[in-house]
Amino acid sequence: MKFLRNLLAAILGTLIAFGIVFVMFFVFISLLGSGEDTINVKQNSVLEIQLQRPIADYTGTSEINPFSGLFEESQGLDEILHAITVAKDDDRIKGISINNNFLLAGLAQTQTLRKVLADFKESGKFIYAYGDFYSQKDYYLASVADSVFLNPVGVLDFRGLSSEVLYYKDLQEKTGVKMEVIRHGKYKSAVEPYLENEMSEANRTQIKELIQSLWNSMVDDISLDRDITAINLNVIADTLGGRLPKYAKQNQLIDDILFYDEYENKIANALAEGETEDINYIALDDYTRYSTTKELRSGKDKIAIIFAQGEIFYGEGGPDIIGQGIINEALIKAREDEKVKAIVLRVNSPGGSALTSDIIWREVELAKAVKPVVVSMGNVAASGGYYIAAGADKIFAEPTTITGSIGVFGTIPNIHGLAKDIGINAEQVGTNKNSVEYSLFEPMGEAFRNQVQESIEDTYETFLRRVSNGRNISMAQADSIAQGRVWSGVDAKRLGLVDELGTLEDAIDEAARLAEVESFGLRKYPKYKSGFERFMEDISGAGAKVKENMVKQEIGEETYQVLKDIKTFMNQKGIQARMPFTLNID
After folding, report:
1. Which one of the listed residues 217, 353, 357, 383 is annotated catalytic?
2. What is the pLDDT of residues 139-166, one digit of tens each?
3. One GO molecular function term (predicted)?
C-alpha cells in the first residue's frame, strides 16, 4: 500500500510539473508578444467597462513585471481610474459602454469611479450603460451615464440600504464554546454578538445613522445625474418603483427598455456607424495594459503613495493584510528618498491589532517630521485604520467612507462549558501566584480579567491621546466622538475627524501643495509579487483556494462568511482596535 501511495504521489507530482511547464510555455509565448504595440486601439473605439472581479485600491505589482496581471483575482482601482482618465484625452476613444457589471467594490470606491466617469463626460464623449440586472451598487455606478438601459425582462434593485448583524450568545451556550470579552466604549459592538441575543439601542442607533448618511450621499449623486429630486428617489425606493422595467422607465431611473442588440444600435448611432458589427470595442483590461505606459504626472520631484489595505495584523503583511513590516518599510523608503517631497497614505482598513497600529502610527510621525503626510481614506478607515491616519498633516475621506470607531477590545476563546460536557478536566500547576495566567479550559478568573481590562483602558487612553494630538483637540473632545462609534465621511468632517471630503487625487494635490511642488511624478508603495509568482511559490495555496470554494458551494456564501467571522475572532491576538461589527450593507 505504501508503495502504491508513493507511486501515485510521484505520478501526480510529475503531472503537476508538466502542467506548470505547459502553462509557463504559453505564458512566455504571450509575454514575447506583449507590449504596447500589441494593444490595438482602433479609431472610433468604445471602451467597454465590465467590472466582475473584486476591486482593490491597489494590486501592487510593478508595471515592468512581465507576470503582472497573471493569476490576479482583483483589479486595481488605481489602474481603472488611470485608464479612464487616459481615455478621456485619447482621440481614438469616442465613448464608454458600462455593460452588465457585477460590481465587487465598496461604496467609496464606487463613488470615486463615478467621479472619474463624470470627468470623462466633460470631454463631450458619451457614456451609455446597459444591464440585465442592476444591483443598487451597479445602478449607482450606471446612473452617471448619459443614458441607462435595461433588458425587457431585467431587474433594477432600488430599495435603500440595510445591514444585518448575527448574534451568537445562544450558540455559545448550546455548544459550550464562548468568547470572553473585555472592552471599552459603549458603542464598541464588535463583541456585542457574543454578549447578547439582540441588538443594543446604541448599536442600532449608530448603524441606522451610518447607513442613512451613506444612502443620502448615493441619492444626492443619483439625483444630480438623473435629474430626479432626492424626495422622489426616496419615494421610488419606498414603493419599489424600479422592480419592473416599465416602472423603472416611468420613474425615470432608466431611459429605455432594450434588448442588447438594440442597445448596440444606440452605440452605433452615437458613433455614426452604420452597422453594429462595425463597432470597435476595447475591453478595459486591454486598455489598462496600454494606459499604464502613459504617465499623467511627471517631474523630477515625486509624491509617494503608500497603500495600506486590509485588516491589521502583527507581522510582515501583504496585499490584503496591513503589517508593520511592509508598511513601515515603505514609509522609511519614502521618508529617506530625497526625490520624494511628500507622502500620501491611502488607508482602506477596518482595523485590527492595536499594537501594530501604534507601531505604524509612530513611523507616520517620523515621516511627518521630515515631509508632509496626507491621508486618503477609502471604503473604510476605522478603528486601527483611523489610528494610523490620525497623526497625518491632513486627512481626506469620501462622503461614503466609513471611519471613526475609536475604541478597543479584547476577545479570548474559552471552552470550559464544552470541556465539562465531554468529560475533560484541566489541572494547572505553577510556581508563583500569577504564573498560571489563563486556561481556555477554565472560567476566566477575576484577577486575569482585571489585568486585561487595565490593558484595554491603557490602550484606549493612548488611542485617544493620538487622536487628540493629531486632530488638535482635547482628550475630552476626542472621547466624546470616540467610544467606538462609527461615522460616515460626511459626519466625520462635521466632527473634525477628517479635514476634507475628496478622492485620492485630491489628497495627492494637497500633498503637492503642502510640499510646494508643481510638477511631480508618482511612486507607489509597497511592491508585491504578482499573483502568478505567488501561485508558483505556493502551489498548496491554490489547493487551499479550491477547497475554500468547494466549502462555499456546499454550505453557501452566507454560512461560510459566518464561519469565517468566528474564525477571525478566534484567531485575534492581543488588544484589538477594530471595526465595531462585520458590516454588510445591502
Report:
1. 383
2. 999 999 999 999 999 999 999 999 998 8
3. ATP-dependent peptidase activity
Of 373, 371, 379, residue with least CA distance to 360: 373
pLDDT tens column, 162-184: 999 889 999 999 999 998 888 87
How many Å apart are CA 248 and CA 256, to the nearest integer?
Answer: 9
d(CA 356, CA 369): 20
Do 107 and 77 form a contact (C-beta atoms < 8 A)?
A: no
**Active-site annotation holds for 147:** no
- The reply to whether omega before 526 is within 30° of 0 (cis) is yes
- Whether residue 383 lies in the annotated active site: yes
Q: Do 80 and 55 form a contact (C-beta atoms < 8 A)?
A: yes
Task: Provide the residue ranges of all domains of the chain, joining segments of one domain with +.
Answer: 45-159+240-292
Handedness of CA 294, 333, 368, 109 (dihedral sign): positive
Closest C-alpha among 329, 339, 340 to residue 305: 340
The band of 106, judged by pLDDT with boundaries at 50, 70 and 90, is: very high
> Candidates 3.40.50.1100, 3.90.180.10, 3.40.50.2300, 3.90.226.10; correct CATH number of 45-159+240-292?
3.90.226.10
Q: What percent of the chain has pLDDT over 90?
A: 66
C-alpha cell, 392: 497625518
Please identify which residue in the block is written with the cell numbers 466624546.
480
> Which pairs from 116-119 meet CB under 8 Å and 24+ separation?
116/81, 116/84, 116/85, 117/84, 117/141, 117/144, 117/145, 118/144, 118/225, 119/85, 119/88
Catalytic entry in 115, 178, 188, 341: 188
Q: Of all residues in the chain, what percent are helix, strand and coil, respectively (each to 5)? A: 45, 20, 35
Span 35-53, pLDDT tens digits:
444 678 999 999 999 998 9
Least confident interval from 1-5, 256-260, 410-414, 572-576? 1-5
pLDDT of residue 464: 95
CA–CA distance, 410 with 180 (Å, rounded to integer): 8
pTM for this entry: 0.85
pLDDT tens string 322-368? 999 999 999 999 999 999 999 999 999 999 999 999 999 999 999 99
- Angle at which helices 201-226 and 107-121 cross, to 10°: 10
Of 240, 73, 131, 140, give the one whose Cα is nearest residue 585: 140
- What residues have CB less than 8 Å from 249, skipping those under 6 apart? 150, 255, 256, 257
CA 216 – CA 140 distance, rounded (Å): 12
Which class for 540: exposed (0-12), middle (13-18), buried (19 or more C-beta within 10 A)?
exposed
Half-sphere exposure of 334 (CA within 13 A, CB side): 32
